[in-house]
Design a protein that fits this description.
Elements lengths: L2 E6 L14 E2 L2 E2 H10 L6 E5 L3 H9 L19 H13 L7 E4 L11 H12 L3 E7 L10 E3 L5 E3 L17 E11 H5 L8 E5 L11 H11 L5
Parallel strand pairs: 1-4, 1-5, 6-10
Antiparallel strand pairs: 2-3, 5-9, 6-9, 7-8
Length: about 230
């Protein structure tokens, strides 16, 4: 399976200005994800998608020179990640370079354990699923079987649609949330506008090093974690 890794990194971040090239520990934030991708043996190609000159230079210094400039309309706040992925796919296909799957690696989740990407690729390959996402467990108190929605009558109803609530924590099925560290998707699914398709498998991330950097509070957490992260 030939896989294209796409690292999206626009320059217009607001919660943490210029975060993709801001130093986290001794490296720019984006370098953590570039290094993790370069360490993978399962990725055929790695591309940084950016419209920003400084980010492009930082990526080149890390050994990952962007082959194109991302269009401005795909770098606005409302631009979707799937549109960025579709643009990268189209760039390569216009050069008669084709991939079986794409791997989205967001710099905002910088701490991936050594071998994590290849473990995810191996599970994706063997599962036959349309996609794979990295996840973390949802604490039992937030399990969807214990969550409620307001119904049309104004009364609460169980979010899962069940008529009776599961009474004991031990009886709750496992539930997960996406953590943003990795998305693996068959190319034809991504080209159709989805990261997921009809069948989704998963890999659990290490909760001890989880951070998704969107605010300065997230950045401060990353600064605390980086001293203990070996990659």
């Amino acid at each position: 399976m030939k896989i294209l890794a796409i690292i999206p990194a626009r320059g217009g971040s607001k919660g943490v200005p210029r975060k993709n090239i801001k130093l986290l520990g001794k490296m720019p934030l984006i370098e953590y994800t570039i290094n993790a991708a370069k360490a993978s043996i399962g990725l055929a190609e790695i591309v940084v998608s950016t419209e920003d000159v400084e980010i492009a230079i930082a990526a080149e210094v890390c050994g990952c020179k962007p082959p194109f400039v991302r269009p401005a309309e795909l770098s606005e706040d409302d631009a979707s990640s799937i549109s960025v992925v579709q643009h990268a796919i189209a760039f390569y296909e216009n050069q008669n370079v084709f991939f079986d799957a794409v791997c989205l690696l967001q710099p905002t989740t910088p701490f991936r354990a050594k071998g994590f990407i290849d473990e995810a690729i191996q599970k994706f390959r063997t599962s036959g699923a349309d996609s794979l996402v990295s996840v973390l467990p949802i604490p039992h108190e937030y399990n969807p079987h214990w969550a409620f929605e307001e119904g049309q009558s104004g009364f609460l109803q169980i979010a899962t649609g069940e008529s009776q609530i599961i009474p004991r924590r031990q009886e709750l099925p496992k539930a997960f949330h996406r953590d943003g560290s990795i998305y693996l998707t068959k190319t034809e699914i991504a080209k159709a506008g989805s990261f997921y398709g009809k069948s989704i498998t998963y890999i659990e991330s290490n909760a001890d090093f989880y951070v998704n950097i969107d605010t300065m509070k997230d950045w401060e957490k990353a600064e605390r974690l980086v001293t203990h992260f070996n990659g």
